[in-house]
């Protein structure tokens, strides 16, 4: 495999770049690019934590997170890269955040020991309609609804990036967060990535790591397995959509026949071939 063909949002590749002790400075830089954009406090170090959270009750929802790390100031950060669109992404994210926040408190500990917990979601799809929020980056906190400024606590911080909203533009002199997002985006050309690497040492390091990734058989096996999973999932979804459409057409044909319409009239109304109408009715 050539680096030019890599899907940089692939789960195996993202973990290789951002969940590796040897490259944790890249993870730190990526995380801080969100904080710099939002104007919240940046972190100075990043130690990886266990990514698997056990359910807190029988048959509860267990969670396996992409990248989790803790800094010396107590900030806990989770980074998720999502290629697929999930239903109830808002509640799903709150569930992940709550699991992280809650697990920090041991039995008998004071609530004062709880600290800032950040969830970062990089999505390869649109989460919010443009008329609701047209920008590619959004950040949520617990605010007083009376003025939308007074925070109840700084402990909750949830970021979303919607890559399809990242407009095509010049990579030169792009902002810190935008450089990382353009590096990851499937729409970015290799020439543009090389331009980013010339301006940003961390992205240059990531691109050098890509060469290691494509030469490692274990990495490529994990990568291809995830790509196959994505292809199979999309094929299943397309089949379900097609089947649903066909069933809808059949129901319409039968409903029109029940209303006394002729084969020719049904074909005209539904823009179908008359032979198709007759095959459905048979």
Report the strand count: 8
Overall tally of domains: 2
DSSP strand content: 15-25%
For the biggest sheet, the summary is:
6 strands, mixed
Mean pLDDT: 87
What do these coordinates show?
The protein has 282 residues and is α/β, with parallel strands linked by helices. The chain has 2 domains: 3-215; 235-281. It is 46% helix and 15% strand. It contains 9 helices and 8 strands. Strands 1-4-5-6-8-7 form a 6-stranded mixed sheet, sandwiched between helices. Helix 3 (89-103) links the parallel strand 5 (76-82) and strand 6 (117-123). Helix 1 packs antiparallel against helix 7 (217-258), helix 7 (217-258) crosses helix 8 (263-270) and helix 8 (263-270) crosses helix 9 (274-281). The radius of gyration is 24 Å and the shape is globular.
Protein traits:
46% helix; alpha/beta; 282 residues; two-stranded antiparallel ribbon
Topology:
Elements lengths: L10 H8 L5 H15 L8 E2 L3 E2 L9 E2 L2 E4 L5 E7 L6 H15 L13 E7 L13 E7 L7 E12 L13 H9 L5 H10 L1 H15 L1 H42 L4 H8 L3 H8 L1
Parallel strand pairs: 5-6, 6-8
Antiparallel strand pairs: 1-4, 2-3, 4-5, 7-8
What's the quick description here?
The chain is of the alpha/beta class and 282 residues long.
């Amino acid at each position: 495999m050539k680096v030019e063909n890599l899907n940089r949002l692939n789960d195996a590749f993202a973990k290789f770049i951002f969940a590796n002790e040897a490259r944790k400075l890249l993870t730190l830089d990526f995380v801080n690019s969100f904080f710099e954009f939002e104007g919240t406090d940046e972190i100075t170090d990043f130690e990886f934590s266990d990514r698997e959270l056990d359910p807190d009750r029988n048959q509860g929802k267990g969670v396996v997170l992409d990248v989790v790390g803790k800094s010396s100031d107590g900030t806990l950060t989770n980074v998720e890269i999502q290629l697929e669109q999930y239903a109830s992404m808002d509640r799903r994210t709150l569930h992940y955040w709550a699991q992280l926040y809650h697990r920090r408190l041991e039995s008998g500990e004071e609530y004062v020991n709880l600290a800032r917990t950040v969830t970062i979601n990089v999505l390869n799809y649109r989460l919010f309609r443009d008329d609701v929020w047209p920008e590619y980056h959004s950040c949520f906190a617990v605010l007083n609804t009376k003025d939308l400024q007074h925070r109840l606590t700084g402990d909750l911080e949830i970021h979303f990036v919607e890559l399809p909203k990242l407009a095509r533009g010049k990579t030169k002199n792009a902002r810190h967060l935008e450089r990382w997002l353009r590096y990851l985006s499937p729409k970015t050309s290799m020439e543009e990535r090389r331009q980013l690497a010339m301006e940003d040492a961390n992205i240059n390091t990531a691109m050098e790591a890509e060469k290691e990734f494509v030469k490692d058989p274990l990495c490529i096996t994990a990568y291809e397995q995830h790509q196959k999973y994505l292809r199979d999932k999309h094929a299943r979804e397309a089949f379900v959509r097609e089947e649903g459409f066909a069933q809808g057409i059949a129901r319409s044909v039968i409903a029109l026949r029940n209303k006394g319409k002729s084969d020719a009239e049904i074909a005209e109304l539904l823009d179908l071939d008359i032979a198709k109408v007759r095959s459905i009715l048979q």
